[in-house]
Amino acid sequence: MIGFLFNLLLALSWLLLTNTFTLLNVLFGFALGFVVIGLIHRTVPALYFYPKRLPRAIRFVLFFIKELVIANWRVATDIVTPIWYMHPGVIAMPLTAKTEFEIALVANIISLTPGTLSMEVSEDKKTLFVHAMFLDDEQKLRGDLKEIEQRLLQVLR
Predict the structure, then answer these.
(1) What phi, psi does 123 have (nearest 5°)?
(2) pTM
(3) CA-CA 20 to 30 A from 81: which of 32, 37, 63, 127?
(4) How far apart are the C-alpha atoms of 26 and 149, rounded to whole Å?
(5) Are 94 and 127 spatial neighbours (Cβ–Cβ below 8 Å)?
C-alpha cells in the first residue's frame, strides 16, 4: 500500500513538473514512478515487494472483470430464457486464506460475482460456505472459486 501511494506521489510530481494534466501523461507518470520504485525497491524496506505486487494486482483486476462479465452473462441469459437452467446449492470451500482480512476479502470478492454468495465462515476459519446459483459441477465450481482465492492471495502476500 505504501508503494502504491509512493507511486501516486511520483506520478503527481511528474504532472506538476510537466504541467500537462492528460490521461496519457498521468499513465506515463505512473509508469515512470513504477520504474523509479523498481530501481530503489531493494534499499527501501517498505517498497520491497511493490514491483511484484502491482503487476499481480493488474492481472487480478483483469481476471476478475473477465469472470464478472461471464457470470453476468450466464445469470442474464438464465433470467431472459423461458427455461430455468439453474441448479442452486451450497458448497463448502476449504480456505487457504489465514487472516481475517484475507478471509473477508475472499468472501466479498466471491459475493460480488453474480450467481454466488458467501454465506458463512466456519468457526475454525478454514471453510467458507458458498451458495451457488449454478451448481452443475461441484468440483469445477470449487476449482473456480479456489482460483479466485489464489489469485487474490498472490496480490496480498
Answers:
(1) -65, -30
(2) 0.79
(3) 63
(4) 31
(5) yes
